[in-house]
Design a protein that fits this description.
alpha/beta, 8-stranded mixed β-sheet, 27 helices, 44 strands, disordered C terminus
Amino acid sequence: MKKAFEKPVRALLSRCITYALNRHRSKWLVLLLLSTGSYVHAQETFPVNGIADPREGCFAFTHATIIRDAQTTLNNATLLIRDGKIVEAGTSITIPKDAVVVDCKGKYIYPSFVDLYSNYGLSEPKRGGSAWNAAPQFLSNTKGAYGWNQAIRSEINAADLFVADDGKAAPLREAGFGTVLTQQPDGIARGTAALVTLATAKENKVMLRERAAAAYSFDKGTSTQNYPNSLMGSIALLRQTYLDAQWYKSQPAKEGINLSLQAWNANQSLPQLFEAADKWDVLRADKIGDEFGVQYIIKASGNEYQRIPEMAATKATFIVPLNFPNAIDVEDPNDARFVALADMKHWEMAPTSPAAFEKANIPFCLTAADLKDVKQFLANVRKAIAYGLSEQKALEALTKTPATLIKAYDKVGSLEAGKLANFLITSGPVFNDKTILYQNWVQGNRYIIKADGWNDVRGAYTVNLSNGASYTVNIKGTPVSPALSVLQQDTLSGHIDINGKLVVLSLPLSKNSKSSIRLSGIISDNGWTGTGSDTSGNLVKWNAVFVKAISEKDDTTKAKAPVTVGPMYYPFNGYGWEKLPQQQDLLIKNATVWTGEKDGKLENTDVLIRNGKITQIGKGLSAGGARVIDGTGKHLSAGIIDEHSHIAISKGVNESSQSVTSEVRIADVLNPEDVNIYRQLSGGVTASHLLHGSANAIGGQSQLVKLRWGQNAERLKVTNWDPFIKFALGENVKQSNWGERNTVRFPQTRMGVEQIYMDAFTRARDYERQGAGKRRDLELDALVEILHQRRFITCHSYVQSEINMLMHVADSFHFRVNTFTHILEGYKVADKMKAHGAGAGTFADWWAYKMEVQDAIPYNAAIMHKVGVVTAINSDDAEMARRLNQEAAKTIKYGGVSEEDALKMVTLNPAKLLHVDSRMGSIKVGKDADVVLWSDDPLSIYAKAEKTIVDGIVEFDREYDLQLRSRITAERNRLIQRMLAEKKKGTPTQKATFVPDEMYHCEDLQGGHQQAIGY
């Protein structure tokens, strides 16, 4: 078909060019027609219904200040482009005869910006329709030969879905962008992203690379499938998919064709882009990447500046958003008191984020993603510069860095020969507040952003009237808003209005005159001319002659220093440290020491701590340079260990979608900023066993942590300990209390729970026998560890029949249940537990709070203890953990347990249950220096933890806590005053909102961040 069009088109072009040359028509017509000569050679598959009009040509932009890249500026230079590409940029360029010359004197030319995080041209993903009370969905409902989980969408290609949309491209062009990497932000594996320009053309013309990157996140997106329903489930699914994809390379016959895994493997050669929801997700993603040899490009959230050393350690390049929060409306003090100090500080410090990356030498680029209005982008770049970001780095982060990351620096990112003609024309340095973006050229096509001010008419003029009068006129102001004044005896303010080449002038002749000379005309290269009327209404002709430029006054204002902000806190809330505390040598003198060992309670005794360990216990010890703490009249005990806790967990304590989720790990989702860490330190807790919830028979893997306030997640973890896992029995597992829609997941009866266990361990045993070359299954890996006593069970339990049942299952498979937690009917089966070798972690006096605990009694702990079962008192509650010493004391009342044995129930006994009693749980030479200095007998309701020491570091000090409260008050007041000042200036504000604390318990099914109030 195209040959049928070529011959007549070529003949028609020839006739048109000849006609235009003979008639001496404008060079624009000639150049336009000449430029179509490329049509014959640059053939394409799309036919033309009519006259071909590609509108490609040659342009020379002269006398400009050209910023070729962030490091190179060319003064009084020329940019030459042809057919949508850059031919040359320099100061000694020969301009072709066919070039259209555009005088850019006084103007700047920059490379157009590149954004690596966009969904331009793609429709918003829509969640599949399902009734609010629909039954759980266990498998993908995506039709075709795809994988089992809807959140793995690696087969999706943005290029297949992309539709150019000038309505959405225009705001991006106006913000300075010429190229974007677009993806469909839906799912954990999101498929591939396409690199496209923002030109107004067909999709095949604007698409530079159809598979430019592969995209991921921890967000399941529009998937209607139940799994995963927690952050740890998302991480487990991502980890398992990496393993499955590696296995799929062997083309396993039983799997058949799996297009999702096939696409996943094909996408691994592309740049790997990961969206992180917060700074901790950055570290989680990086850890997954390290596990599988992948270096992600991280799309940041905006709070990463709070942990810059950790960000640097990832070795990742970041895509940094500029979605700085508005000031909070805190005018009403009742509203203000519900706003967390952390939120106030984030408002103040968020604009420092790009500068923090630059200062730390972390490579990054900038994105307009997450902005409610892309028009704010340049304003926010300028704000980031005001907060310390250099202009050079800002430009690099919008040009070379993103282009290089996406392997497209040969096409975009600088103004060099052979690259696309994507560039901005501005009135001045692009990041100056007063600079105007006039035009954005994309693939050689001009897009006018602001026409006003292109011709800078400012200067001194002589206006001559046909009646013989003449006036001296000065035009100042800005190119966009010029201001006219007439120089008479007084300088009189007139008026000028310019619309393209049309101009209207109003010239007053005296200070108090009510009439003025009114003129209108046109602006041409030969001057200004037109007609008008004088003050008497007589018609006049006029012209204006340029006399001279008016020199601008030198800007005598000093360069603005970066905006100052308050101090950084670790963690990022009011009780955080400005500088993390260091390990010290400590000598605690003359205290009553509760050793928890055979020495019992020692009066007037000293304890020496060096290098985080207990090194001496005795009387009259020498400090030897150690810091001395007076313990006179006070009591020193081992730190409390909470054997059952759910603090410091992010976005869900249960992966409740399936009955067996042994692949998920609490270690993946630690939240080091949970204020409950600090609160529990104030109650003497030094270590916590963080458990998965009780929503399923076999839950997730647990994590023992030390409460090292201010450290990151990895530093919280206790290393080299025997790993544990959470099991559960009872109502939660069979979904008795989940509502009518949850009646299809097996099991629905207590009998079914037993079969889940039998089936799971049978599958694990069979899996182990398969040998090398099998598909690695993370769920079964954990169960195999249990079979070989390399992972140990903590089981949520209440009813004696089920307790007996699980011990029978364990015996059948030759492993041991390590700990029954809650175990409120433990007193009924204590002898069997002892024979099995199980320990107990229980409540002191909880009973009758649901049907399966009707037989609970407060004597439970004492009875199990006296039978010989290792028994601990635990919390399962963030608030109760702050007073576990008092909970332990209840066993003295209910059962007559001795004081020392009672205290062991929250110190040494949980250490035994967790297999760390050789390292912690008592005061003994060689053990970790995890101790608490109490104001009184630790079993007294009047006792307060004055100092809580973890590994020889004073993590909580009651005197310092009082100072922190004063600091919080002062810092809140300072920030409130700043916010009030912003509101007074008319700056947009956001409404103060109440965000409640979210504290998890065993049965909680909801996910989400734990959020702090007021501190």
